[in-house]
Write a structure and sequence with these properties.
The chain is mainly alpha-helical. It folds into two domains: 81 residues; 33 residues. Helices cover 85% and strands 0% of the residues. It is elongated and about 70 Å long.
Amino acid sequence: MTKLEELKEKFDKKIDNEFKEFIENLKQCTPEVIIEKSYEKVSKEEMIYKLKDKEYTTADLKALLKTDGILEECYDEWLKSDGNFNEVLEYAIDERVDLIVEDFREKNKKERER
């Protein structure tokens, strides 16, 4: 295993442990708080996939391994730029609604032709 691979493995474990700690803390909360934090949980899960999928240099990984709270920092940054999520969500809704309406029109047209 190369040095880069070793560092990447350590980084992946670090991210997993940060998330496990977040979940353990969440388990101690009231149901109301858990519901309030559900968006944070899902967002951090997605961030883990993205963080693990990225390619890093040895220097990148060394810096990341010395940093605590990477998921929390990423989540805070995500909250600052949440408009992008809203745009993607709106696009997905618009596309689906357009398809539903188009399918409905096609079905009605076929029924009228009978």
